[in-house]
């Protein structure tokens, strides 16, 4: 009975387990189907920084992939410091798995500082993150930056003072314990840490939009000062002094002067704002959490420098407003104490994403963190005074020009002698009553003051009267006239007169900020005019305040590099680049217009680049057109793309592009052409709008593997059909397959919280998508990611202004208008107009574009303008993060050949090594060759390139040179004999010779080989001579003997035979002697040649052995 019960129990237990596994498998399969193809996420993760805590990572890979879990911390000095990393490779594909990782954290973030833990870190934030990346060609990525799928979680940290002590693992010696007790509380004296901060010491242009400069303030290092600051958070005593210059009233009801935002991007104390009527509003957050503000009715004037001094003396606020040596004092008492923590969040000078800024300029700004009784903030910069003077002059020029245009259009008869000049007042008194006088509204001095402009206006009077020239057209005409007259008659020198400068100034005043940029370039570079940094700064600021794309890029570039008198300030650079970047983002919507082109990297110094250009009459284009007419789908698509974008020297033609894309897409063979044509159908560009056909083509292209078509389907469902769930599905598929637009769109969904699956706003996920898309050059994603990096307002993301600036600079350099200017410059160069090309390349070079800088330097050399002109732009080009090798080689040659000066020779050679190293890292064989030559001269290679050539400190000179030249030869074309391959062969032969001569026997063999060569030089000509002598000698005929006919005849013959016989015997002996001598010489020479050949064979065999 017991056996039966046991059997039944076992059967029931087995069945239960089997059913349970089936249910779990069904649940697992159901949940697996609901997740995307490639996936990574946390099943569980700790909330705090705890050693030994466990992270469970759930993931699935459709291809071989590598995964990793990292713990990253940030301190006040370092960001993204990895303190833990665990990697593994997944071999099972398409299966959801859970991997357990135990976090083993270093003592530096877990315990207090003690004898065994002296490097304890004061951590600001900590993040645990997991990432996944597909393996390509068997390579294993090493960085988180290579990943495309990742997940984050911010961990709660324990302050350093509250951490536990580290458990001792060994005992200290008496002496070590004594020394530790004596030194543990000893602190090194802190350097002087001022509580007065110059927030701004160089003018900042503000366009009145949502762009401004971000400043963050750190806690004091000095503990006494930090305690005072913390105590003043609820009882603040601070002073802010700021100079502003207003060009216009606020576009909106409020605009920002200075405002403070906390880490949640909420307004904090203190805010200084301006109303559209010129009044000032001060707002602060109270300790109760409420916000309170007051208004000061002052009506600030335009085009005057105004100083605002705001002093907070809790709970009182004093505001001093000063201009024209007059000061107004305003006091306001808040209802409660003010909460003020300047280390919380960030301050913005001007505009931000949440509040537009003023339209004008910011002058010096001083911040007194503990307040002050005497404010010292004088307007001492000459640039500020020149800026005010130039703006007033512009007002006069605009008023005069408007009056002139009005007089001409109203067809007033101007005198032929002094057109448009009113009679002076003292002459007008002599005019008889009833005599007709002029009706002009300007004084007689004005045409004399602006005589160059006045004379030019007179020449354009007919065009003004007919209405073909207005203020907008005049600014372009003035610019063109000035540029055309800049060169001398022989077109070999730049000669800029005061007349040209006045035309450019008028063009700038009328709103043409290419003229502002050219004026700034002339004053800063000294092209045809003396260098004047102050005036250069003035025109640069005018162009930036006028919202000119190129002027904004110019100002951002100068502040990034700290050149031409601009201070290096990445926060100021970001304020300009953020504006230019957003304009570039807006410009992408109109990239099809004729005034925008994709930037093509054609270097004038590279003939191959110039030869690659095509046009509609070229053989390549005609062949492509021929193939397209024959019905070749790829040729039709290629031709349509060239005509749409205007590539390779072909002009844009949207209608013809649409025709060829239509032919290609209708064959349903080329998914790229189908996608491009669907976009034209969606927008109605060059073809009638047809969303039905566009959707059909998108689906077909997506089915054929087009990732961009998947993104297009997502856009159609999200925007047109308002089906966000399907849109997210398509965007995810596109992003997983590498579509940057798909990544960006997913980031927008996470940022807005409109993702139906996760209807919550997730800025961290959005930021990660933006960063991933920005790595591939996505314009809008770069703009979004740069904002987070500039402010550091997102948890786990530290402020990194440099990275934000580099990101935006890349975006701005892809601007279509900049591409159009480069295209114009290239066309002018190809047409022989070197001067026009030079001016356009200079304008683009001043924006920081490396291509334009290299080409401007080339034209400086080609036009023989000046030595400084050439090296100025070469030097600028090497400052870029992606410098072209040709510029690096030029600067390297410049430093190397300038090293003849004894006192500077070592430093100049070091700089040459640096330039050649950067060129080598960029893949330049010439740079590698130059490094090899310098290494052969005994110069040590920089550390930056040692890894590239696999060189160590212990390698001998010949080994180093050989490794460099070998890498150079591998980089060059293998089918041709190159300088690197010849140099490498010479080096190897020299090394082989030295190895041979180190051995006595082999040295003897080398000498013998040398003698053998000499012997060959002697005996081979001798053999040739002997051979010619033998072949040239004639054989001697034998005399026929006859029988005598008489006795006398017999005797006569015998007598003759006796005489002749003696003679023949003597000659025969001599002949035998000669023959024997020649035979001996021939045998000797044969033996010498043989021995020499054997010796040389032995030598070359030994030499090749050492060589190979």
TrEMBL record:
<dbReference type="InterPro" id="IPR006597">
    <property type="entry name" value="Sel1-like"/>
</dbReference>
<keyword id="KW-0812">Transmembrane</keyword>
<feature type="transmembrane region" description="Helical">
    <location>
        <begin position="1004"/>
        <end position="1026"/>
    </location>
</feature>
<feature type="transmembrane region" description="Helical">
    <location>
        <begin position="1087"/>
        <end position="1107"/>
    </location>
</feature>
<dbReference type="Pfam" id="PF08238">
    <property type="entry name" value="Sel1"/>
</dbReference>
<dbReference type="InterPro" id="IPR042756">
    <property type="entry name" value="Sel-1L3"/>
</dbReference>
<dbReference type="InterPro" id="IPR011990">
    <property type="entry name" value="TPR-like_helical_dom_sf"/>
</dbReference>
<keyword id="KW-1133">Transmembrane helix</keyword>
<protein>
    <recommendedName>
        <fullName>Protein sel-1 homolog 3-like</fullName>
    </recommendedName>
</protein>
<feature type="signal peptide">
    <location>
        <begin position="1"/>
        <end position="20"/>
    </location>
</feature>
<keyword id="KW-0472">Membrane</keyword>
<keyword id="KW-0732">Signal</keyword>
């Amino acid at each position: 009975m017991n056996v039966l019960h046991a059997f039944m129990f076992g059967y029931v237990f087995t069945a239960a387990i089997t059913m349970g596994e089936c249910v779990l498998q069904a649940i697992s399969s159901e949940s697996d189907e609901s997740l995307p193809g490639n996936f990574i996420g946390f099943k569980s993760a700790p909330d705090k920084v705890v050693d030994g805590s466990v992270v469970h990572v759930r993931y699935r890979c459709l291809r071989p992939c590598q995964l990793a879990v990292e713990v990253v911390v940030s301190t006040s000095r370092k960001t993204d410091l990895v303190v833990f990393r665990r990697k593994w490779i997944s071999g099972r594909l398409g299966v959801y798995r859970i991997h357990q990782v135990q976090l083993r954290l270093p003592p530096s973030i877990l315990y207090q500082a003690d004898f065994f833990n002296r490097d304890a870190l004061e951590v600001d934030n900590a993040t645990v993150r997991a990432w996944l990346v597909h393996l390509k060609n068997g390579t294993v990525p090493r960085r988180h930056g290579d990943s495309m799928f990742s997940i984050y979680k911010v961990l709660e940290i324990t302050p350093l003072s509250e951490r536990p002590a580290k458990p001792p693992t060994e005992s200290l010696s008496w002496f070590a314990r004594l020394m530790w007790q004596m030194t543990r509380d000893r602190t090194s004296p802190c350097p002087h840490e001022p509580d007065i901060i110059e927030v701004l010491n160089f003018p900042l242009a503000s366009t009145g939009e949502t762009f401004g400069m971000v400043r963050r303030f750190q806690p004091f290092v000095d503990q006494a000062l930090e305690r005072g600051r913390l105590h003043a958070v609820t009882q603040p005593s601070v002073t802010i002094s700021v100079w502003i210059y207003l060009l216009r009233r606020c576009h909106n009801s409020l605009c920002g002067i200075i405002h403070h935002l906390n880490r949640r991007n909420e307004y904090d104390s203190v805010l200084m704002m301006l109303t559209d009527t010129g009044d000032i509003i001060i707002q602060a957050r109270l300790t109760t959490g409420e916000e309170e503000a007051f208004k000061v009715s002052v009506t600030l004037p335009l085009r005057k420098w105004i100083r605002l001094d705001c002093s907070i003396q809790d709970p009182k606020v004093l505001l001093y407003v000063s201009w024209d040596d007059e000061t107004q004092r305003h006091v306001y008492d808040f209802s409660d104490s003010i909460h003020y923590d300047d280390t919380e969040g960030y301050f913005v000078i001007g505009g931000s994403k949440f509040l537009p800024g003023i339209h004008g300029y910011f002058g010096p700004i001083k911040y007194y963190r503990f307040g002050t009784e005497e404010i010292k903030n004088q307007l001492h910069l000459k640039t500020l005074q020149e800026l005010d003077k130039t703006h007033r002059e512009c007002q006069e020029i605009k008023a005069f020009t408007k009056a002139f245009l009005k007089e001409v259009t109203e067809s007033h008869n101007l005198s032929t002698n002094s057109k448009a000049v009113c009679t002076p007042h003292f002459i007008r008194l002599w005019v008889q009553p009833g005599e007709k006088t002029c009706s002009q509204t300007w004084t007689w001095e004005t045409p004399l003051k602006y005589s160059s402009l006045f004379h030019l206006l007179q020449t354009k009077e007919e065009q003004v009267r007919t209405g073909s020239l207005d203020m907008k057209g005049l600014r372009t005409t003035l610019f063109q006239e000035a540029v055309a007259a800049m060169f001398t008659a022989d077109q070999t020198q730049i000669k800029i007169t005061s007349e040209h400068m006045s035309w450019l100034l008028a063009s700038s005043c009328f709103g043409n900020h290419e003229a502002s940029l050219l004026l700034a370039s002339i004053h800063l570079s000294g092209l045809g005019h003396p260098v004047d940094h102050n005036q250069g700064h003035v025109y640069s600021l005018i162009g930036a305040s006028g919202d000119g794309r190129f002027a904004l890029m110019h100002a951002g570039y100068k502040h990034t590099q700290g050149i031409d008198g601009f201070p290096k300030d990445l926060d100021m650079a970001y304020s300009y680049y953020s504006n230019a970047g957003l304009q570039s983002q807006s410009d992408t919507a109109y990239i099809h217009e004729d005034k925008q082109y994709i930037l093509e990297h054609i270097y004038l110094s590279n003939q191959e680049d110039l030869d690659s250009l095509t046009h509609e009459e070229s053989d390549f284009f005609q062949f492509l057109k021929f193939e397209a007419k024959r019905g070749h789908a790829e040729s039709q698509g290629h031709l349509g793309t060239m005509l749409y974008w205007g590539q390779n020297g072909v002009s844009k033609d949207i209608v013809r592009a649409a025709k060829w894309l239509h032919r290609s897409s209708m064959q349903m063979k080329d998914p790229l052409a189908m996608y491009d044509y669907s976009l034209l159908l969606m927008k109605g560009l060059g073809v009638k709008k047809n969303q039905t056909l566009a959707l059909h083509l998108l689906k077909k292209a997506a089915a054929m593997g087009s990732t961009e078509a998947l993104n297009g389907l997502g856009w159609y469902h999200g925007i047109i059909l308002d089906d966000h769930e399907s849109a997210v599905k398509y965007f995810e598929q596109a992003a997983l397959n590498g579509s940057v637009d798909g990544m960006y769109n997913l980031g927008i969904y996470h940022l807005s919280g409109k993702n139906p699956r996760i209807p919550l706003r997730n800025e961290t996920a959005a930021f990660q998508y933006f960063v991933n898309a920005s790595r591939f050059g996505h314009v809008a994603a770069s703009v979004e990611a740069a904002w987070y990096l500039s402010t550091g307002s997102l948890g786990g993301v530290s402020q990194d202004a440099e990275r934000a600036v580099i990101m935006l600079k890349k975006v701005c350099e892809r601007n279509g208008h900049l591409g159009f200017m480069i295209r114009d410059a290239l066309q002018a160069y190809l047409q022989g107009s070197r001067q026009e090309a030079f001016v356009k390349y200079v304008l683009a070079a001043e924006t920081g574009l490396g291509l334009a800088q290299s080409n401007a330097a080339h034209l400086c050399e080609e036009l023989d303008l000046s030595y400084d002109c050439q090296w100025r732009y070469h030097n600028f080009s090497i400052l870029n993060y992606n410098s072209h090798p040709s510029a690096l080689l030029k600067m390297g040659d410049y430093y190397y050949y300038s090293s003849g000066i004894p006192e500077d020779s070592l430093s100049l050679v070091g700089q040459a090594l640096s330039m050649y190293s950067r060129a080598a890292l960029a893949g330049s064989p010439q740079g590698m060759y130059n490094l090899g030559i310098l290494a052969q001269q005994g110069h040590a290679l920089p550390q930056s390139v040692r890894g590239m050539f696999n060189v160590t400190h212990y390698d001998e000179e010949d080994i180093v040179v050989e490794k460099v030249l070998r890498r150079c030869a591998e980089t060059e074309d293998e089918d041709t004999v190159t300088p690197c391959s010849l140099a490498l062969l010479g080096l190897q032969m020299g090394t082989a010779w030295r190895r041979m001569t180190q051995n006595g026997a082999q040295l003897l063999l080398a000498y013998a080989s040398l003698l053998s060569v000499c012997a060959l030089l002697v005996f081979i000509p001798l053999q040739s001579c002997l051979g010619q002598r033998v072949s040239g000698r004639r054989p001697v005929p034998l005399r026929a003997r006859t029988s005598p006919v008489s006795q006398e005849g017999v005797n006569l013959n015998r007598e003759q035979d006796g005489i002749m016989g003696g003679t023949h015997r003597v000659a025969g002996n001599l002949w035998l002697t000669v023959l024997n001598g020649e035979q001996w010489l021939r045998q000797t020479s044969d033996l010498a040649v043989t021995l020499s050949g054997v010796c040389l064979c032995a030598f070359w065999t030994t030499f090749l052995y050492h060589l190979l």
